[in-house]
Amino acid sequence: MSTDPSVSADELRRVLREAAFTRLYQFELETFAFGECTLRVPFQPALERPGGLVAGPVFMAVADVAVWLAIMTRLGKDVVAVTTELNTSFIGSAKQEDVFCRAVILKSGSTLIRALAECRNRSGNLLTHHSATYIRK
User: Fold this and answer.
1) Range of the domain at 107
2) Phi, then psi, of 36 in degrees rounded to 5
3) Structural domains in the chain (count)
């Protein structure tokens, strides 16, 4: 099996640009390799909850999208896979700062795909931990 990504950086950036649900967050591709992807969520006031903290759904969204793109690095951009389960543990908080999320595919079977994702701030402090299961359609 090849360990080269099945997509290019331009293809992943195009997916982020063209998927309407990702535009709100302004996700930016940081890095990717076979079976992994790191996204950055630039800080924006619209993503804050009261108290100036980055809202919880932002972490869940970036983790889900990072896993989705990590799947594409293994199976190509045309793969149809959807989230069946996303478990999130909130460990820290981000206040008026960018969030970075790295997703790694643990196992890619013929039907189910299992992954982990972690969100951190620029200093590397762990903010959230996610486990995800996708199903191939």
Assistant:
1) 9-136
2) -155, 155
3) 1
Tell me the per-residue pLDDT of 97-122, one tens digit each, with 9 for 90 and over.
Answer: 999 999 999 999 999 999 999 999 99
Express each pLDDT in 24-71 by its tens digit: 999 999 999 999 999 999 999 999 999 989 999 999 999 999 999 999
Which H/E stretch holds residue 86?
Answer: strand 81-90
Identify whether 60 is part of a domain: yes
Rounded CA separation 124/120 (Å): 5
CB 117 within 8 A of CB 132: yes
SS3 for 3? coil
Identify the CATH number of the domain in which residue 84 sits. Answer: 3.10.129.10
Measured over the CA atoms of residue 68, residue 69, residue 74 and residue 80, the dihedral's sign is positive
